[in-house]
Amino acid sequence: RRANGVGSRSLMRQLAGLRSFLRFLEREKLADASALSAIRGPKLPRLLPKPVAAASALRLVDPDERAGETRAAWILARDAAVMTLLYGCGLRISEALGLKVEDAPSTERDMIRVLGKGGKTRIVPVIAPAIKAIETYRAQCPYELTPKSPLFRGARGGPLSPRIIQLTMERLRGGLGLPDSATPHALRHSFATHLLSRGGDLRAIQELLGHASLSTTQIYTEV
């Protein structure tokens, strides 16, 4: 398969399929799958994060870049607020959309408590532009924002779907001439990369991102 030009990731998927099939045969007492332990999968190349350039990231979070769209002003403000949290605070999209109204930062409280992977919580400082973006959205949102309700609402008032932000990014990167790698998660990569390039402490960035291991954060030093 390798001689036929099949890549390492494809080989890994094919091996996984073979292993699953052979284990099924073994459970049915039709084959012996012990030889699987002797098969080693190919080594996969380490993929580096693909951050967005700082100037492009600032345009992505600017609602004025979408001034020509026929969408309600509060929706444009909402999307800008979400993406500002991703870039300005390094949140995952699930973390941003998981915020409740009572969690929202303000000029009096410039930090948020975030529920991350594995149910772990962390405290993240929120910069002034992100606070302003959230307050602009809240002032325009047509739905009642009670303390326990989701902070970010969909067009019909329900919780905002991550897919909506992904589609927003697709439209924006088309207009700004950005590559397909410019996704909502790329804004989180940009947060870490730009902080590190401006002298940010690696251990502090690890805590801000909520990485369990420093080795995960260290990959940004290779970008």
Task: Specify the helix fraction band.
Answer: 40-55%
- Report the sheet with the most strands, covering strand number, pairing sense and barrel closure: 2 strands, antiparallel
Spatial order of the strands in the main sheet? 1-2
Average pLDDT value? 91
SSE layout and pairing:
Elements lengths: L7 H20 L26 H7 L12 H17 L3 H5 L13 E5 L5 E5 L2 H13 L21 H15 L7 H14 L4 H8 L4 H5 L5
Helix pairs in contact: 3-5, 3-7
Commentary on this structure:
With 223 residues, this protein is mainly alpha-helical. The chain is 47% helix and 4% strand. The chain is built from nine helices and two strands; from the N terminus they run H-H-H-H-E-E-H-H-H-H-H. It has helices at residues 8-27, 54-60, 73-89, 93-97, 128-140, 162-176, 184-197, 202-209, 214-218, and strands spanning 111-115, 121-125. A two-stranded antiparallel ribbon has the order 1-2. The chain is elongated and about 65 Å long. The model has no long low-confidence stretch (mean pLDDT 91).
